[in-house]
């Protein structure tokens, strides 16, 4: 039975401004209670091709619309999202499981992105520069790439989509979007908002389906000139290889193994608060989640005691119940992955202080719940200290100094987010210089990025591009250099310079 919030039992693809029935369907399940919410299409390469051809045609017209007018559509999108924020948040919690206050925050992130990128419609700045020759003008300008393919994950079903689609749209591109099959409802709702806001037909197309069918077809399609992907490192590497063969632009935002550093002079109460929020928010299913705490040995025992005391207070359950602070894992596969790491950690010699088990019985019977987990006496080379678990699991790693803490932080294959708690300004500046992550927090956890700054990381986290901020435009635009010679004669650069 479809929830009354949704008012439909089957989602449809959105292609050329039309709602298109799928050939096959699969169920979308609420991870909090195991109930089917709605059915979603399982599309194929033919559906992708229709969407791409539609987008290709629409983009030619959309690129000719003045950028400030394109921005007005995004402004209306943001306004509609703001009006529907509570409903969108509740739908997000239903399909994703994150608690309602987090869902509201995610929807707000999309609203903020709409308003921010609408402002770029009156900027999209290029540069003017003096020419080396007389009576000659030189400038650069941003131009749209064409058709953009975006592939988004289930853990942030609307925020990440807005990071990618809004800059693409305001820059004059058309979009083909594959949402995650686990969380398609917010994509369906955002497509309706695009339609209502007056976005021309074909500028945004939503094709639901599996990565092996829809995502693969998008990556291989010659008329999609950019792929922007957020997901696993393994999948991202495969996408990068194929896009490289096609000389296609690709933006990758993948995993993280993020650490909070707690120094001996830290405010431990604040550190505990930051760790709990970063580690157990969204049940640890964030690419920026804190999964390591690198703690100075002089405060290790005190920090452990305070963490354990506060972890006992965490309320776990359906995110629609606002008394709960931790929701479910997305699906059974996610639960099984977290369970495997419990055995790995114990076999490696880590000490399990709390959690480490699937929550069953009572209100947890039909959902996917894993107890918030704390390991201690973890060494930097252990797998639980190196590999992304993507669940509510934290490993405490003791160190003797800031220098050692920074070395441990940097000693993983990922480089997304890091944090340090300290009252020493000298340590702050040393840490922000030497931590090799794309995001650094001081006296805060590893989560909480704001949309007007670039989001992304180093090493195995990505390939150098950024979502969010003005830097997101670099993914969806090409630079064009323009020279205007009004001398009335042929002037040869470098040759005719006196």
Question: Which descriptors apply to this entry?
Answer:
498 residues; Aldehyde Dehydrogenase, Chain A, domain 2; Aldehyde Dehydrogenase, Chain A, domain 1; 2 domains; alpha/beta; single chain
Short description:
36% of the residues lie in helices and 21% in strands. With 498 residues, the chain is of the alpha/beta class. A seven-stranded mixed β-sheet has the order 14-17-18-13-12-20-21, with helices on both faces. The chain has a five-stranded parallel β-sheet with strand order 9-8-7-10-11, with helices on both faces.
Detailed description of the structure:
The chain is an alpha/beta fold. The protein folds into two domains: 13-254 and 462-481, Aldehyde Dehydrogenase, Chain A, domain 1, CATH 3.40.605.10; 258-442, 3-Layer(aba) Sandwich (Aldehyde Dehydrogenase, Chain A, domain 2), CATH 3.40.309.10. 36% of the residues lie in helices and 21% in strands. The protein has 13 helices and 23 strands. The chain has helices at 45-62, 67-83, 85-96, 100-120, 159-170, 185-197, 211-220, 233-246, 268-280, 300-311, 332-348, 402-410, 425-434; strands at 13-15, 18-20, 25-29, 36-41, 127-130, 136-144, 147-151, 174-178, 204-206, 226-230, 249-253, 258-262, 290-296, 351-354, 358-359, 369-370, 373-376, 393-399, 414-415, 417-421, 439-442, 458-459, 477-485. The strands form seven sheets. A seven-stranded mixed beta sheet has the order 14-17-18-13-12-20-21, with helices on both faces. Strands 9-8-7-10-11 form a five-stranded parallel beta sheet, with helices on both faces. A three-stranded antiparallel beta sheet has the order 5-6-23, with no helix packed on it. The longest helix is centred in the first third of the chain and has 21 residues, at 100-120. The chain is globular, with a radius of gyration of 24 Å. The N and C termini lie far apart (79 Å).
